[in-house]
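User: Can you fold this complex?
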Amino acid sequence: MSRITIKDVAGLAGVSPATVSRVLNHGPTVAEELRVRVLDAVGRLGYRPNSQARFLRTRATTVLGVIISDITNPFFTSMVRGAEDAASKAGYSVVLANTDEDLGKEQRYIEVAVAENMAGVILSPASTSRTSIALLSERGIPVVTVDRRLQTAKVDRVGVNNVRAAQEAVLRLVDQGCRRIGFIAGPAEVTTSVDRLAGYKHGLKASGLAYRNELVVRGDYRIEGGRAAAHALLALRPRPDALFVSNNLMTLGAATALREHGLGYPGDIKLAAFDDMSWTLGLSDEITLISQPTYEIGRQAAELLLRRVAGEQFPARHVVLSASLA
Amino acid sequence: MSRITIKDVAGLAGVSPATVSRVLNHGPTVAEELRVRVLDAVGRLGYRPNSQARFLRTRATTVLGVIISDITNPFFTSMVRGAEDAASKAGYSVVLANTDEDLGKEQRYIEVAVAENMAGVILSPASTSRTSIALLSERGIPVVTVDRRLQTAKVDRVGVNNVRAAQEAVLRLVDQGCRRIGFIAGPAEVTTSVDRLAGYKHGLKASGLAYRNELVVRGDYRIEGGRAAAHALLALRPRPDALFVSNNLMTLGAATALREHGLGYPGDIKLAAFDDMSWTLGLSDEITLISQPTYEIGRQAAELLLRRVAGEQFPARHVVLSASLA
DNA sequence: TTGAAAGCGCTAACAC
DNA sequence: GTGTTAGCGCTTTCAA
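Assistant: Here's the predicted assembly.
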């Protein structure tokens, strides 16, 4: 319970608080003898600086916030790990918040980031048009979006080319003989969803297939939404000969729906999907998978963010990594 | 970028900073007219109090830390949601940190919690004997462990009776005719793992079955570990007629191993497992599942923690919720 | 009821 | 090279 302050350390070491501060921070040089005395006192007392008090002076914190839309999604998990590694290499730590694709929660966590004066924020916005980072911008807290883009502000973003990846997956399905490809889209307000749908359309066009409205059903990027959407598509006659699902969680739901219809893949129907699924039951062997370099996305997002935190100025940058078709 | 302080608000409202503070916090009553002027100024300026400065005076923060061992595990996800709901109801926010079952990372995040002066911490310790919360205790920051217990300190804990749950699952398997039940245990340093193994043994004993060393293989609570352990068990002759897996991620690995051996469940071999698996492919129909009230665990952990944060004193409490066999 | 003033723990500016 | 001083933004005595 003891509250050890810089004064206590100074007292024990027989120096002034300023000297203690200089030793602990990269300050001007301090006589070796004093350095040792200070460090010794710090050790004995178990002193750790109060970061709030420090912030009051320096305006510099070493915490990055990562605000993501769905913590259950392995996409983000791996991304967070990449961000953590890059951040801790630079002496920063990372705290997470989960918005559940809920704009209200998202705004609350943005407020927390402001209130805690976080050094920067990595954000996967719940909505491209309704998410507002104004609170952060006003305070000069830099933001990098991952995966998704933000329409409401020109900020850095790290992600993949979703249009192209989706298109390639469609071409692959067509190569496998599919002609009636159902598409399970994501929320209309999320850019990845928009882009993937666009890629789907391009893929059809490039293959000389007509776009059919009834073959596109919108889901919510979650398991149940995928299941419902798949049921809708499977009820169509003639039945689609392939399902292209625009994120991993919905794919789980779609797979359940297939089972419920007694359909096997890739025998009865082909399956393609976005995002890694290694965490599921070896599903990956039988489906066309678009996997994103999630760790790398997190790493680069953090690095970009840290450059902004350090005060570098450059036009908003879009880092586009490549997704691969497995 | 503008830095609006309480002084600016006071200036605009024509009152003293103290009055602004009184309006914003449940201070002594302030004349209605001034209240309005202050609130108006706050609104016009978009003022938000600097929480660091406030903390320096009050020593009270409204952030709870949740430090968990594996963010990919849905067990924790749902738990976090429960904690968040309880916390935000009380005006607290929750930040997450992921330790990956790594003691070093865990310690770093405990340091972050201290440095940030978090009001309290919910922890799922990576090790019952080597995880140290001394840093937190010294600062008087209360801790509640979830799921797992901590040997190194007597703190509150919320979880289920793992011994009994495991025992019941074994009895269920025996009821289904199993006589040679393989057990995939978790890390030796995690109490849930120890307890579940104990329950397994009790279950065997209660059923009049002998405990056989070779039928127990230790995994790491992750997918690959489960797969390796299952392979080891399936190589035994005679082959086990059931596999009891002590957590959900390992169950995914075990299921993969079964597929690789060309074995079907529950036809060729029975399966029982801890933790919810609804997020996987409808796996749940065919296996004996022990599900924990994860949301409730999180909720109660947060509530207990908040009572400690509020200064309530009572002996370390163990809240044991009941797991159910599906 | 309200304002003035002190001080939380720290670091930056200025003296020495 | 080191100590003294001031002040970050806020809340909380203490007076008025």
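Residues 291 and 324 of chain B are 5 Å apart (CA to CA). The longest helix of chain B spans residues 74-89.
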